[in-house]
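haha ok so turns out i had the wrong file open the whole time. this is the CORRECT one, sorry everyone. sequence first:
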Amino acid sequence: MLLKEIESFLEEDVGHEDYEEIVPYTTCKAEITVKEEGILAGLDEAKQIFDYLSVQYSTEFEDGARINSGDTILTVMGAGAKILKAERLVLNFLGQMSGVATVTNKFVTEARKVNEHIKVAGTRKTTPGFRKYEKKAIAIGGGDPHRFGLYEAVIIKDNHIKLMGLESAIKEAKEKASFTKKIEVEVESKADALRAAVLGVDIIMLDNMPVAEVKECVRLLKERGLRDGLILEASGGINMGNIKEFASTGVDVVSIGMITHAAKWLGFSLNVVE
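then structure:
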């Protein structure tokens, strides 16, 4: 975490009404405990915030650990004013990042029951200003963060195709994008999937297709000798109830927006004990 980020997050929460002016500077000890089972994420960020405020800490955990209700995640020691100043910010990081890591891990576990090589990826449906932490939490949970932003790959989506046409959009991408960038095309039909494969894209996203149609796309691409070297991604409408079905279709990746935009936070609390 950058120093300016820590200071910005603290300014957002504390503002000009600094706790250090109204809370006793007495040294105290506090514990951060978790209220439910999950995958821990955000611990490194919590440590950095406490380091910035000169609060000492100890822990037996690390990011990625499986945690259970009642576990003491961090024990902190320092000025009460400093600990309370950090409290909400630290708990927010732990809660949100652990929530994302936990739901990601659940999807990965289910998907790999039927396809041990499949990747469970996130999307760009993230909280503005907090993307890098949500993407990190996806990775901690065993998922793939997908591209961080528009600049990391070229994805030709439905609106690009409406404006330019499929062939023209792919042609422009191939001419103008660096050789280091993959070109991905989002398609909604078997015909467009085959056209995109013939035109030599790197990744085809099968968007909002039912399981049966995804399977048929995979079969047709194999049948026509277009499957090798092509990354196939299924996206849209994937949830815990159907993740195994999508994972068994033969695609390489399933991308799921809800692992960030709808992840339930894990509950953490900080309590002064001395």
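The first helix runs from residue 3 to 14.
again sry for the mixup
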